[in-house]
Amino acid sequence: MNDKDVFDIDFGRYYDYAELTEHLKGLAEAYPDLTTLHNIGQSYRGRDIWLMEITNQQVGGTPDEKPGYYLDAITHPEEVSGSMVALYTIWYLLTNYGKDDAVTRLLDWQTVYVLPVLNPDGLEICLHDPYYEWHGNARYLPGEEQEGAGLHYADMNDDDIIVDMRIPDENGEWKVSEKDPRLLVQREPYEYGGEYYRRLPEGYIEDFDGVEIPIPRPRDGNLNRNYPYNWGPESEQYGAGEYPLSEPAIEAVVKFILGHPNIAGAINFHTNAGAILLPFNKGAKMPFEDQTVFKRIGKIGADATGYGLIADEKQFNMPNAKPRRGTASGFLYTQLGIICSVVELWDVYKESGIEKDWFYQHRPLTEEQKLKLLKWSDEELEGEGFMDWTPFEHPQLGPVEIGGWKRLFMFRNPPGHRLEEMCHKNAMFVIKHALCAPQLRVSEASLVQLADDVFKVEAVIENQGYLPTNVTKRAVDADVVEPVQAEIELSDGLELVSGRQKVEVGHLAGRAERAMKYSRFIDWHPTGKKVEWVVRLQDGQSSGEVKVRATSQRAGRDVRELVVE
Questions:
Q1: CB of 224 within 8 A of CB of 327?
Q2: What is the CATH number of the domain that holds 79?
Q3: Between helices 101-109 and 81-96, what is the axis angle to 10°?
Q4: How far apart are CA 241 and CA 304, in angstroms?
Q5: Residue 470 falls inside a structural domain
Q6: Region 416-424: what's the mean pLDDT?
Q7: In the chain, pLDDT over 90 holds for what percent of residues?
Q8: CA dist., res. 552 & res. 109, Å (int)
Q9: Could you tell me the pTM of the whole model?
Q10: Do residue 453 and residue 391 come from a single domain?
């Protein structure tokens, strides 16, 4: 791959699995001092799951010794723009290292882990096969995911897309809009005597009895219900899988995260709500300290992207919906105490000028709202967001019309010419989010001579980051993060007279605590602590070296060296 391929990635189009793999390998080859490309597992259908590790390997210790930040995309296959945000983030970090102060600081002192395609099987299906709002884990392919009597999704007219069918029916609930014949609007409750339609997904009907047209629930699964924390079986929630981690991709992700306790922050990219979701924290009440931090970081994301900030699951659910279980955010925050966000990319409603107080996509729209969406499609997509109704002789239903909204690159994802702008805004949030991590430093280290050959070693271990070294109160409550340790290492010719070689410092607060509303200075916890040792030169030795090392699972490590003479 030449430089042009690496540096001039076209972020105005979408890439399939093979193309993304090529770009990831090319970037890893072009930036060997900043990247390591890992294969963390395989999908259900045997595709490699690629994760890019990004850090300056010459500064701040090994990648696992630095505060980590994890990012993934395409849990749900039709949410393809997440992979482009992930790829753009990798590209932006690498091409701006040494030029942008924030990027340089991030890669010098932290490690960023980016998994652009969690569900590679689903990505391939959505970009190459006709489907109807497919969420799947690829255990069942389109055309296989439904079983039994009823309507099965299918590309009936062989135009490589599955949309809707409108069926003339005097008892139908829909009628043609008087303001635009493309639109169907609901018939009034009192209305009779007009031309009415039923509307169904495009497909064929198995075992049709001439009257009833049920739609069998697809067995396509939902990878964001297969995480271990608060998992519930299929009887309690659709798409959960046979058991926690039954899906190979989720098992690979969970094993990777558990194997990297340095991860302090995380983000999962989904699509089509224009919202930043804070963890809904099923099963455990979120401590006030964590609520404050989540909202502060969430506001940074909202300001960077223009998206809404959602802290209440009810704002993102259908009425009376059951709480989501077995999710990534439940695993990341409630089980592991990691600061995390779910970003729902893209909001065609806002783009169309529709004001809304809801975020869940499956809510009824008024005729005026639908007209705004059509207008936006006509102007931004040259009409490509909607397929005009076309007559079709259905093998079971007789004369129908096929048409309606093309969902993938209108509702679920932006069109190509709007893609790079969205990628950039979200990459800026990623950088700022990652830089909120705790940062452990040996900020001071000195020697005080007590006698000819006896010295006191004094050091200050300090957290210079925004978050505390434990990252969240939840991590302490769940007992999943170890306290900061300070350790002294002596060269030959020196011996330790007083103090333990390794000292437990405890957790150190960050700037976050000082900025909390209602916080008083008497409630503040220390951001730094002093540690001391006494050392002695052994007989006949005129000098020696002392290393003071501070370590933290999530705040990194730092070392200061002193010469005793």
A1: yes
A2: 3.40.630.10
A3: 90
A4: 35
A5: yes
A6: 97
A7: 81
A8: 13
A9: 0.95
A10: no
Q: Are residues 162 and 250 in the same domain?
A: no
Please give the pLDDT value at position 279: 85
The two three-digit tokens of residue 31, written as one number: 């930036």
Question: Quick one: which of 324, 125, 290, 334 has its CA closest to 218?
Answer: 125
Residue 41: give the domain boundaries. 3-126+220-346+414-434
Is the same domain home to 270 and 418? Answer: yes
Q: Which has the closest alpha carbon to 365: 383, 352, 380?
A: 352
CATH number at residue 471: 2.60.40.10
Mean of all residue pLDDT scores within the chain: 92
Q: pLDDT > 70: what percent of the chain?
A: 94
Contact between 35 and 56 under an 8 Å Cβ cutoff? The reply is no
Quickly list DSSP for 302-335.
Answer: HHHH--EEE--GGGGS-TTPPPP-S-HHIIIIII
- Which residues are CB-contacts of 444 (< 8 A; sequence separation ≥ 6)? 458, 459, 460
Q: Please write the tens of the pLDDT for every residue from 459-493.
A: 999 999 999 999 999 999 999 999 999 999 999 99
Q: Determine, yes or no, domain membership for 137.
A: no
Query: 480 and 447, same structural domain?
Result: yes
pLDDT at 62 over 90: yes
161 vs 134, 157, 280, 387, CA distance in Å?
12, 9, 35, 10
**Of 292, 309, 304, which Cα lies nearest the Cα of 468?**
292
Q: What 8-state DSSP symbol labels residue 408? A: I
- Cα 199 to Cα 164, 172, 229, 388, 434: the distances in Å are 7, 8, 39, 14, 46
